[in-house]
C-alpha cells in the first residue's frame, strides 16, 4: 500500500487524467463481466431466434464499449505510465539538488542512481497493472459476488470468506518478503556501485593491469546477489503456490456445489456458465496482482531507502533574500567530518564586497572544506557565519545559488557540446566566447576541432588534457557572471607560461568581482588584496 500511496502523492499534474483512466478501467471491468452474465441469462430458458438477435445486439454493445474503455487506457493510461517514471526522476533530481553535501558524500552516486532508476522504471509496470488489472478487478469482484448471491447466498458468502483469507494471508506473506527484498536491494545496489565505479574507471583498470582484482570483486558481489535472488524467488514461488492452492480450492468447491445444485434441478446450468466465465476473468487478474505483489515489495524497499537518503535532512526554510551586502564574516567556526579526528577551525575570516582574498596551504589542510562552508554546502558544528548582520541560517538559499559560482578543480564536464558546457543554457555571442578562449590560449585548439564549439566533450566525446579541462571549467564559471567567485586550485594543471596568461586574464576579469582563491601557487597572490593560510587545519590571516 505504501507504494500506491507514493504514486498517488506524486501524481501532481497527472492526477485528473489518472483518475479518469482508472474509472475507465472500472467501467471496462463492468462491461466485460456483463458478457457472460448475458449468456447466462439468455440460456436460462428456451432460446429462440428473437433472443438470438437481442443477445447479439447487447453483446456487441458491451463488447464495443469495452473496446472504447480499453482504447482510453491505451491512449492516456499507458502514456501516463511511460511519462510518470521520468517525472519522478526529475523530482528526485530536484530533491538531490537541495541535499547538503555532507549527506550526498555519505552515499555513492552510483548507488543513488541505481535506486532512482529502480523506482522510476518499476513504476511503469505498476501503473499498467493499476489501469489494466486492479481497476477491472474492483468492478468484476463486485459483479461476481452480486450475481453469485442472486443465485446462492451461501456460495457468495463462502467465496467472500475465502477472498478475505486470500487477502489476509497474502498481505502477511508479502510483509515477510519485505526484508528479503530489502536485502536483495542492498546487495544489488552494492554490485551496481562497484560495477559503475570500475566501468567509469575502466582506463585505470587497463593501465594498472588489475583485471583479476576487479573481476574477483565483481564475481563475489554477483554471487551474493544471485544467492539472494534465489532466496527471494523461492519465497515468492511458495507464496504463489499457497495462495493459488487456496484460490483453486474455492473454484473446485464452488463448481462442485453448483453441479450438485444443478443435478437436483435447483439451479440452471447457465449459472455454471456464468461462474466459470467469471472465474476465468478474475483468475487472470488475481495471477497478475499476485505477481505485482513481488514488485511492490521490492519497490517499497527502494522507495524507503531513497527516503532515508533524501528526506532525512531538515527541510530548507525559504527566508527572505537580501538584495545588497557589504561583507561576509566567519567567527569561531569549527567543523569536523564524521568518523575523523581532524577538526577545522576558523577563528576569524572577513571578505568585503569587491575584495580578492587568497587562501594558501598544503593539501589536506581543509581549504576546500572552507569553500564548502562558505557556499553553505556544509554546516559548521559551531560558530557564526554572517552576511552583514544576517546569519547564514536565516539566508535564502537563492543567495548562494544565484550570486556565487564555485569553480572546483575536480568538476567534470557534461556529455554535451563544448558550447553547451560553457554557456549552460545562456545565450552568449560566439565572438565573446572565442575572445575568452583566445585570452586563455585555447582558440587555436577550438578552431582545429572538426565541429568547433559544437564538438561533444565529456565521457563519450573528445578527450581533453587536464590543463584544457581546467581552463574550460574556468570559462564556464566566468560566463555565469556571478558577483562572488570561488576558485579551487584554478591553475594546478597548467605550466608557468599558460598560468601567467590565465592570471593576466583573471586580473582584468575580477576587477568588479568578490573573489576567494584557494591555491598553493604563489603567483596567484599577486592579484589578491589579502591572504590567509590554512595550517594545522586552522585558518589565519598573514601579511
From TrEMBL:
GO MF annotation list: ABC-type transporter activity; ATP binding; ATP hydrolysis activity; ATPase-coupled lipid transmembrane transporter activity
Keywords linked to the UniProt accession: ATP-binding, Membrane, Nucleotide-binding, Transmembrane, Transmembrane helix
UniProt-listed InterPro entries: AAA+_ATPase, ABC1_TM_dom, ABC1_TM_sf, ABC_transporter-like_ATP-bd, ABC_transporter-like_CS, P-loop_NTPase, Type_1_exporter
Record SUPFAM superfamilies: ABC transporter transmembrane region, P-loop containing nucleoside triphosphate hydrolases
All residue ranges annotated as the ABC transmembrane type-1 domain in the record: 19-298
Keyword Transmembrane helix: yes
Domain of life: Bacteria
GO cellular component, one term: plasma membrane
Main location: membrane
Compartment(s) where it occurs, according to its Swiss-Prot or TrEMBL record: Cell membrane
Ranges in a coiled coil: none
The keyword ATP-binding belongs to this UniProt entry's keyword annotation: yes
Positions of transmembrane segments: 20-40, 52-73, 153-173, 240-260, 266-282
Membrane topology: Multi-pass membrane protein
ABC transporter domain ranges (all copies): 328-542
Protein name per its UniProtKB record: ABC transporter domain-containing protein
Organism: Candidatus Magasanikbacteria bacterium RIFCSPHIGHO2_01_FULL_33_34
Amino acid at each position: 500500500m505504501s507504494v500506491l500511496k507514493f504514486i498517488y502523492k506524486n501524481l501532481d499534474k497527472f492526477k485528473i487524467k489518472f483518475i479518469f483512466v482508472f474509472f475507465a478501467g472500472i467501467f471496462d471491468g463492468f462491461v466485460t463481466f456483463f458478457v457472460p452474465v448475458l449468456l447466462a441469462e439468455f440460456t436460462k430458458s428456451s432460446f429462440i431466434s428473437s433472443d438470438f438477435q437481442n443477445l447479439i445486439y447487447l453483446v456487441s454493445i458491451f463488447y464495443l464499449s469495452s473496446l472504447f474503455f480499453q482504447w482510453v487506457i491505451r491512449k492516456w493510461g499507458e502514456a501516463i505510465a511511460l511519462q510518470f517514471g521520468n517525472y519522478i526522476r526529475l523530482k528526485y533530481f530536484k530533491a538531490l539538488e537541495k541535499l547538503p553535501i555532507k549527506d550526498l558524500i555519505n552515499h555513492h552516486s552510483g548507488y543513488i542512481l541505481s535506486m532512482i532508476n529502480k523506482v522510476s522504471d518499476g513504476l511503469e509496470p505498476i501503473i499498467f497493472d493499476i489501469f489494466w488489472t486492479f481497476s477491472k478487478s474492483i468492478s468484476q469482484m463486485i459483479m461476481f459476488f452480486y450475481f453469485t448471491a442472486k443465485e446462492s447466498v451461501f456460495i457468495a458468502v463462502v467465496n467472500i470468506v475465502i477472498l478475505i483469507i486470500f487477502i489476509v494471508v497474502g498481505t502477511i506473506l508479502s510483509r515477510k518478503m519485505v526484508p528479503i527484498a530489502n536485502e536483495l536491494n542492498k546487495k544489488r545496489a552494492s554490485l551496481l556501485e562497484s560495477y559503475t565505479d570500475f566501468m567509469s574507471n575502466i582506463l585505470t583498470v587497463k593501465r594498472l593491469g588489475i583485471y583479476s582484482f576487479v573481476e574477483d570483486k565483481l564475481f563475489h558481489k554477483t554471487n551474493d546477489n544471485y544467492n539472494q535472488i534465489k532466496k527471494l524467488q523461492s519465497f515468492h514461488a511458495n507464496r504463489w503456490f499457497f495462495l493459488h492452492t487456496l484460490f483453486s480450492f474455492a473454484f473446485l468447491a464452488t463448481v462442485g456445489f453448483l453441479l450438485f445444485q444443478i443435478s437436483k434441478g435447483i439451479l440452471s446450468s447457465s449459472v455454471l456458465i456464468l461462474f466459470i466465465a467469471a472465474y476465468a476473468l478474475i483468475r487472470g487478474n488475481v495471477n497478475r496482482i499476485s505477481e505485482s505483489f513481488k514488485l511492490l515489495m521490492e519497490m517499497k524497499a527502494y522507495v524507503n531507502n531513497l527516503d532515508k537518503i533524501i528526506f532525512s535532512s531538515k527541510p530548507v526554510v525559504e527566508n527572505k533574500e537580501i538584495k545588497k551586502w557589504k561583507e561576509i564574516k566567519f567567527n569561531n567556526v569549527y567543523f569536523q567530518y564524521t568518523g575523523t579526528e581532524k577538526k577545522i577551525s576558523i577563528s576569524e575570516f572577513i571578505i568585503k564586497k569587491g575584495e580578492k582574498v587568497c587562501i594558501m596551504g598544503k593539501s589536506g589542510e581543509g581549504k576546500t572544506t572552507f569553500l564548502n562552508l562558505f557556499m553553505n554546502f556544509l554546516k559548521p558544528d559551531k560558530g557564526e557565519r554572517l552576511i552583514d548582520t544576517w546569519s547564514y541560517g536565516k539566508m535564502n538559499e537563492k543567495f548562494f545559488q544565484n550570486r556565487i559560482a564555485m569553480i572546483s578543480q575536480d568538476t567534470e564536464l557534461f556529455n554535451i557540446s563544448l558550447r553547451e558546457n560553457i554557456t549552460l543554457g545562456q545565450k552568449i555571442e560566439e565572438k565573446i566566447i572565442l575572445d575568452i578562449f583566445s585570452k586563455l590560449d585555447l582558440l587555436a585548439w577550438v578552431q582545429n576541432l572538426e565541429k568547433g564549439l559544437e564538438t561533444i566533450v565529456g565521457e563519450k566525446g573528445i578527450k581533453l588534457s587536464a590543463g584544457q579541462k581546467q581552463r574550460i571549467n574556468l570559462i564556464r564559471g566566468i560566463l555565469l557572471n556571478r558577483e562572488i567567485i570561488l576558485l579551487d586550485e584554478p591553475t594546478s594543471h597548467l605550466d608557468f607560461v599558460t598560468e601567467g596568461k590565465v592570471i593576466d586574464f583573471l586580473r582584468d576579469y575580477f576587477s568588479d568581482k568578490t573573489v576567494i582563491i584557494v591555491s598553493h601557487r604563489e603567483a596567484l597572490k599577486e592579484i589578491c588584496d589579502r591572504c590567509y593560510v590554512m595550517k594545522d587545519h586552522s585558518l589565519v590571516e598573514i601579511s
